Each structure stands twice: as structure tokens, then as C-alpha cells.
């Protein structure tokens, strides 16, 4: 404003000088010529200065010329807005950094620099999960075979996400999975190829590898889900809880991870309770019911403390006894599967306690990068009480080594399974899958576009809060990590044999 006033004063001075020049011309033509030249120089300098200021975004020179003033857009550093939806939900897009339809970010500089290292080792399993379709590709016919197993279909075309639901999923698994995909496209706008996939949101895998062995069988249907096992060909994808599990009041992973890190600081490792700890619902599987037998009793102390979590009661009481950040109080924490793999895995391992990992039948997307005795201590499924007692005794007599295993497992979770790498895993998995498609993705009849507005606005209570907390506010400034090469047959065999040998060393 000061510059604008200064410019106006210069114009006024110029007009005053011009009037004086008319009077001077009558008495001295030479003096008048000098004044005219000075005046012209001053006017010329003023115009140049105004143009320069306009270029710098400080002044609109059209106002000096008497033209209609056009608002000037000044690019400023991004402002991160609070993680909540506005009362008028139709403007939710305007509350965050704008991402244009062509996938570019209007308000933020996007770095073209890649991360300095390749992706974590578990990304190599993407190649293995997609290997059944390497030779045949995925045709329309092969994809549609997955239709009867799927809860919903995901279509990405021109950077937009569409979904068609076929049957109701457990709780809001499908909703938060789709929400996560929407956030992926905001994190890496314009970088996902067109694709079409089918997703089964139940727990256990359904595509049995034995049903598709031999040349007489066609390629298996590509079914995306949250876990798989060695006897199945389901394609593993990050589960819904990374964006929040509202039914159990478990916040989005980024928020939970921060809270657990703070909880870790409350009790030093050497001052923690020197027993193995587990809290959960034992009704969902036989292996969990077996775990109850390992609890302390008048007859036996298996160095284990087991607590039953009644989620119905917890919900009525406001989840006051199930805060994850308050459960980092023991030196050892037990991971045991539920009906299939368990969402609890990452929360247990983030506690700096040595994880006592009961031999699993299923795997999620990141566990295959972990190594026994480096990230966790293996526990037998059969005879787990004796195995748990031995592990705790070993830890209490090898404190430094036990603490190191616990810390290394937590480091793995914090650094290699953070949300940036979760989005990178989704990005690479979907890109590699799209390369296999032998047909052009189409939006089927009945599919609906899903956006921040269409999903966030109807949500209520914790569901709405968790969507707001997990909402991507602006695109990533970095490119995805570099996808590692596939395992060679020899490398894969060596990795599996090493895991098996390390597990056998301590399973007693």
C-alpha cells in the first residue's frame, strides 16, 4: 500500500512539474526543453517501476492506467488446515490443498527427486504375489471369475476412483479401504494408471493354489484381500485399520503410532513388568483359546499374563481399558492370530517390547520382511505355554539381547511400515497389477465415483473423525521409493530357509 501511495505521489508530482513547464516555456525555451526531458524521464521511470512491481506481485499497474483491475494470484507456501470437515461439506475440497483434475497440485511445489534408497525388502513380495499372472496376464474373463468372491470392485480411470459394491462387508472395512485408495490418489495425483480390480474384505484367503496347478487349469482369479497364506494365491493389500478402526476406537495408524511412541516413554524397558502380556478376544480362534491356558494359576506360572477384552463392554465404557498407548508396560508382548491374521500385529510390535510371535498360518503385506530373532521371538503354536515360559526366561537372563530384539522390531514398524511406505506399497502393487491387464478398464453400470465429499460428508461420529484425521492434505513432495527387483529362485529359497532355521533354533 505504501508503494501504491508513493506511485500516486510520483504521478501527482509529474503533473505539477508539467504545469510548471508550461509557465517556464514563455520565458526560456532551453530551460523548458530540459524540464520536458526530465519530466519524460521521470514518467518513463515510473512506468518501468510499476511494471517491475507488478511482475513481483506487489502492484497491479492496470490501476494506474485506468483499466479494470484484475485480481492477481500470488502463489504462497501451503497452509495445512485442521483435520476436520467443514460444516458445509460441499467445500471439503477447498479446505485442503487443491488437486486439479489433471493431477497437478495448484498450491504446492512438487519435488521430482526420488528417495535415496529402494523400498523396504517386503516390497519384493509384490512380484511373488502377482507371479501367477505373469505369463497369461489378466483378461476380462479371468477378472470376472473373482466377482463371486468380491465385496466390491475398484475402478481407476483418468485419476478418478469409482466403486461398485456387491455385498456388505464386516463393519466398515470396505468404506475405510476405499477411503485409503482415495487418499493414495491424493498423495500421488495423476500417477496411478487406469485399472480395475476386485476386493474381498473378509479375513481368510479363498483362492486355493491347488485348484490352479497344471497346464489344464486357467489362471486363478486375481482377488485382493488383507492377508493370505502359503496355500493361497490371494493378493495382499494393506488393511482398513491404517485409516482407522472406528468400531473399536482405534485411530488411524499415523496417529496411533505417535501415541504408542509416547506410551513407550512412560516406562523404561528395564522397569517394565518382566512377564509376557496379551490382551484381546479369545473367542475368535482355537489358538487364542489355547493361550488362556498359559495364564498364571495356582498350579503353574508360565511367565504369562493374559487378559480378556470384551469389546462390547469396552464400547459401553468408552474404551477406557483398551488404549494402545497404555499397553507398553511389559517387557514381552504376545502376538497370536485371530480368525486369520490379526490387525493387532503392528500395534503390538510398536511397543519396544520383545514380540513373542506365535507361529502364524497367515501373512499380511509387511510381515514377510521380518526376520526371527532380529524383529521377534518365534513361539510354537502347539505347546505354546512351555515355549512362552522359555522365551521370557531367556529374555530376563539376556536383558540386552531381548531389549535389542524389541527395539529392532519397533524400529521396523515405525520406519518401514509408516504411512509413506504404506502408500508406496499400494502405489507399486497397483502399478504392477495394472501392467498385467489385457483389457481396457471400464466403469460398470451401477458404479459410483468416490471422493472426499461423497465419503466424508455422510460419515458421523468417530467414522467422520477418523476420516478427517487420515485425510491426505497435500500431495507428496517426493516420488515413490524405488521398487526392488524380484527374488531369484535361489534368493527366495535362501530367505525362506534362513527363517525356518532361525525359528527351529528357539522353538522348544
Description:
- This protein has 508 residues and is of the alpha/beta class.
- The chain has helices at residues 2-25, 29-55, 92-95, 125-129, 140-144, 173-187, 253-264, 286-292, 311-316, 344-349, 384-397, 399-416, 419-435, 452-456, 461-469, 489-506; strands at 152-157, 160-165, 195-199, 223-225, 235-236, 273-280, 304-308, 330-335, 354-358, 377-379, 448-449.
- A six-stranded mixed sheet has the order 5-4-3-1-2-11. It has a five-stranded parallel sheet with strand order 7-6-8-9-10.
- Helix 1 packs antiparallel against helix 2.
- The longest helix is centred in the N-terminal third of the chain and has 27 residues, at 29-55.
Can you give me a brief rundown of this structure?
It contains 16 helices and 11 strands. It has helices at residues 2-25, 29-55, 92-95, 125-129, 140-144, 173-187, 253-264, 286-292, 311-316, 344-349, 384-397, 399-416, 419-435, 452-456, 461-469, 489-506, and strands at residues 152-157, 160-165, 195-199, 223-225, 235-236, 273-280, 304-308, 330-335, 354-358, 377-379, 448-449.
